[in-house]
Amino acid sequence: MDKILVGLKRVVDYNVRIRVKGDGSGIETDGVKMSINPFDEIALEEALRIKERGEASEVVVVSIGTSESQQQLRTGLAMGADRAILLETDSAVDPLSAAKAFVKLIEDESPGLVILGKQAIDNDNNQTGQMIAALWQRPQATFASEVALDGDTAKVTREVDAGLETIEVDLPAVVTVDLRLNEPRYVKLPDIMKAKKKPLDTKPFAELGIAIDDAFTTTAYAPPEQRSKGIMVEDTAALVSALKDKGLL
Amino acid sequence: MSNILIIGEHSEGSLNAAVAKCVACASSISGAEIHVMVLGDDVAAIAAQAAALEGVSKVLTVEAAHNAAPLAAVLAPQIAELAADYDYVFGPSTTFGKDLVPRVAALLDVNQLSDIMDVVDARTFKRPIYAGNAITTVSVKPDYKVVATVRAASYKAVGDQTPAPVEAFACTAETPDHSRFVSVQTGSSDRPDLQTAPKVVSGGRALGSEENFKIIFDLADKLGAGVGASRAAVDAGYVPNELQVGQTGKIIAPELYIAIGISGAIQHLTGIKDAGTIVAINKDEDAPIFEVADIGLVGDLFKVIPELEAALG
Asked: Does pTM top 0.80 for this prediction?
């Protein structure tokens, strides 16, 4: 295979404790640490391993977002991607428009595989990969926990509610990855230096001719309802009688 | 008047329990006419189950050999064809629905609303973001087809009714042959299904080993409960991944949830916040699980579990 495209989204770091703004207008993101969406990091790691096994010749990382997303693309280059493309916009891009933008890139780049995280940990939509596959009219293998390439096909094991499902898809295809697929490598300092010299292409999202969909408007943000703290019991006997009182035993 | 199409997920001849919860969500949109679509290679029994769900006015079936396995790429064009005439298309937020519904939405050239947890009005919905750390209210512009997944744990299943009519839908959509089902490996057991069991016993990292985790299974069997686990216990290899409860695993709402040796990371709590009664047993009195537990017991699980079993007789 010639090429793998990997989607990287810039999101609030998964270790940050999210806070809703006091006036309910959004999420507090000022001065908050930003990172590559962890699922996308796993997607990139998988692409790099495929390349290192000699099954692909180039790994291209792609992001859609503000110019600050260059930081995450540079991290992707430091992990080992060969080049990066940023589709730059200051607007929030919905999953359908993001998928349309990816398909435009796919037309230019002709990848054998497109790999993304199954969802971004900010909006938790879990849609973009499936939408790319639909618009591209190619197979999708979502929630992957194992990817095995074999010539023109891939066998993908998927984490589904019932357990592990295996499907076979013709290439090119879209794969979205789950947590247990691999453990992403750490970036080393010399690689960060090297990454500065790798190509990072920026194109204005507006030039793609894709109208950002305005169908959904988020009108309010609220913290989740908290469960109130209950009672503490001293021993097993007290636990059993508390459960009996509630009619649960 | 609006009409709603619900995708009837099923496996091994049974309708998935989440479908009855999607119907409940759809019923909260006033004046809605609710239809269920069932695709498969042998659908009669499943269609009959869907027809008996309270509020469903029609079931539409597409019976074909290529619908034997739940492949999103194969099912999506057929659903999109029928969905053209509907104002809303709902699927459950199971792995089946999450895989399939966005593909349907893209074919219909609309965005998808993920994980509806509340219907405010016909165009306004609530959904969680940031692993449930924030709840957003989203309004959808007029005349835009609402394609959505429904967070099953937020709804109670509808009851039964005199069965609605079942009709075959003459589907003409072309289906691709680029995706093929190979196999599914399930941890089959006679225990109640984790997602739908009224009682669930979950174990965490404190169990210490796959062998020790057996006491969780034994206690669950005494209670007639399903078994779950924290992500830490799954990552440590004590139990298979399909038992994971939490944001990246299963989101459940049993009447009784007993968390044993689980500290209560936010991602785990997101998966159980709709449970009726939460019981926490943990030797660390500062464990965050106690902040949400209705009944807490600080103690050594290896002592408490045998005592509990003895008390249950």
From this structure: yes
